[in-house]
Fold this protein.
Amino acid sequence: MSDAELLARRFEEHRAHLRAVGYRMLGSLGEAEDAVQETWLRLDRSDVSDVRNLGGWLTTVVGRVCLDMLRARATRREHPLEAPDGQVRLPDPVVSGPHGVDPEQEMLVADDVGIALMIVLDTLAPAERLAFVLHDLFAVPFEEIATVLGRTAASTRQLAGRARRRVEKAAPAPDTDPARRREVVDAFLTASRGGDFDALLAVLDPDVVARSDGGGLRPSLLRQGAADVASQAITFARFAQAGLPVLVNGSPGVVAVDAGRAVSVMAFTVRGGRITALDILTDPERLAGIDPGALHDGVPHDG
C-alpha cells in the first residue's frame, strides 16, 4: 500500500467523527460534509509525518474550517435561526427509523444532540461555538483550541464557560425515558387530530415554543405559549394525519407523508413530561432526501 493510500485509509477512520464535529459546528449536514472534504484536502497537502495524534490534528483542522465558514456567514449577515426576511431557519434534522439510529449516524446524535441544543448552538458567536463544541462535546484541550482562535488558553476557557451557561439556560437536559417521551408525543398527535384544545394544553409546557421552517417557498412560523401553540391544532393535525413515527436526532418525532413523499419532519423536546419545544421542517428541498418507505422499514436517513 502506498503512503497516499495509507493516509486516505487513516483519514476514513476519522470521517464519522469529523462529520459529527462539523454538524455540531454548522447545523447543516451538507456543509458538514463540505468541511470534512476541505479537511481532507488540507491533510493531503500537509506533512503529518511528525503528528502523533492524527485524530486530534484532524479535529482541530475541521474546527478551523468550520470557524471560517461560520465567520463567512456572519459577514453575509446570515442569522441561522431567523433571517432578515423573517424566515425561521432550523438546523438539519437527523431522521431515523423508529427502532434505532444507524451506526453511521450514531456520532451525529450522540450526547443528546437534539434539535433544541442545535438551535442554541446556532445563537452562539463563532468563537464561542468552537470553544464549547470542541471542549465540552469532544474533550479537546483548551490549549489546542486556543491555537485555532488565536487566543490564550485562559481566554478560550472563558469563551467556553460563557457558551456553556447559555446552553444550560436555553436548552436544559430533556427527559431521558424514550418510552415516556413517545407517550407524550403520541398524546399531542391524538389531541391535534381530534382538535382537542384542552388536551393539547395538558401536554404542552406553558412556555412552549413552536418553530416551523418552510425554506424559501413556504411561510415560517414562530409562536410561544401553550394557548397560542394549541390554537394551531388544525395546522398540526394536517401534518399529523399521515404521521410516521421516527426518531429525530435520536428522540421521538414524526414524519408526515403525502403521496409517498415526506412533507414535514416534526421534532419534539420533552421535559418534565410536557412538550417544551416543537420544531417543524417543511422545506421541500431539505425533505427531498427522506424516503418514507425506508424509514417505515426502520432504515435511518439524514434530513
About this structure: The chain has a mean pLDDT of 87. The beta strands are 94-96, 204-213, 221-224, 243-248, 251-258, 261-271, 274-281, 301-302.
